Amino acid sequence: MNSEARHADDAVLVTATDCSPQCARTLIGFLERAFPDDGAEGIETQARDHTGAPTVWSTTIDAGRAAMPTGPVALDGTVRVGVQGGPRAVDRVLFALTEAFTVEAKGTVAGDQEREVELLLRSA
Predict the structure, then answer these.
(1) How far is C-alpha 20 from the chain's CA centre?
(2) What is the spatial distance between Cα 107 and Cα 64, in angstroms, rounded to a whole number?
């Protein structure tokens, strides 16, 4: 399999909502350390409220590049997280999240080639 196909299979979109900007940065910083990628897209603000404040943050990670840092990560609140991608790649991201945070599953949608999971994260 060529590297482009592998990367496409390992690409996972992660969104953070219902949280402070600091919580979003903490989560996405953790993911960037857990799945380092020189070509990572980084944090992106997708939506803003009526005051112009960000309400949705996202990043796309390559779940095939796992470094898997261990230990809990502190959040100053809760974060609603969406994880979307291929089933194996999503499982790798979920494993990393459960190692670092207290994770509450809120819902899952599975298709033939893709899986989407909604979670609520808190400090472990």
Answers:
(1) 16
(2) 24
Q: Which two tokens stand for residue 44?
A: 């992106």
Distance of CA 124 to the CA centre of its chain: 16
Closest to 28 in 3D by CA, of 67, 76, 71, 79: 79
User: What angle separates helix 21-34 from helix 87-100, to the nearest 10 degrees?
Assistant: 120
pTM: 0.84
**Two tokens at 26?**
């903490």
Residue pLDDT, tens place only, 20-38: 989 999 999 999 889 987 6
Q: Count Cβ neighbours within 10 Å for each residue of 49-73 and write b for 16 or more, e otherwise.
A: eeeeebbbbbbbbbbbbbeeeeeeb
